[in-house]
User: Fold this.
Amino acid sequence: MNKASRLFWPALVTPKNAVVKQTEQLSRSQKLLTELGLVKSGSNGTYQIMPIAQRSVDKFIDLVDGNMKRAGGQKISLPILTPTGLWKKTGRLEGDISEFYMVRDRSGKQFLMSPVREPTRKR
Assistant:
């Protein structure tokens, strides 16, 4: 059983006098987040949120949800995969489509990973 005092310790603590291998860190904040153990590099360009940072993210989500409820707002979840037909209709799936991640389901319908979340307005 874990002690409560050690539950949210960073996974990697770097001593102050240690020589750290140079990585592709672009900003000072990115360096601080990794050094403090709040995030961990998974692969190039991807990071894993560690437990103490996840706890902060959850608290932030609760704060935003509470304020949204007080203001009369509603929370929705949008799909990650969307049919390519929607994108073709609006003209956004033309030209070089190699930057999109596309998959097909069992029946052959094509979907793409949605890169944006745009609200639709009826006019």
Observations:
- The first strand starts at residue 39 and ends at 43.
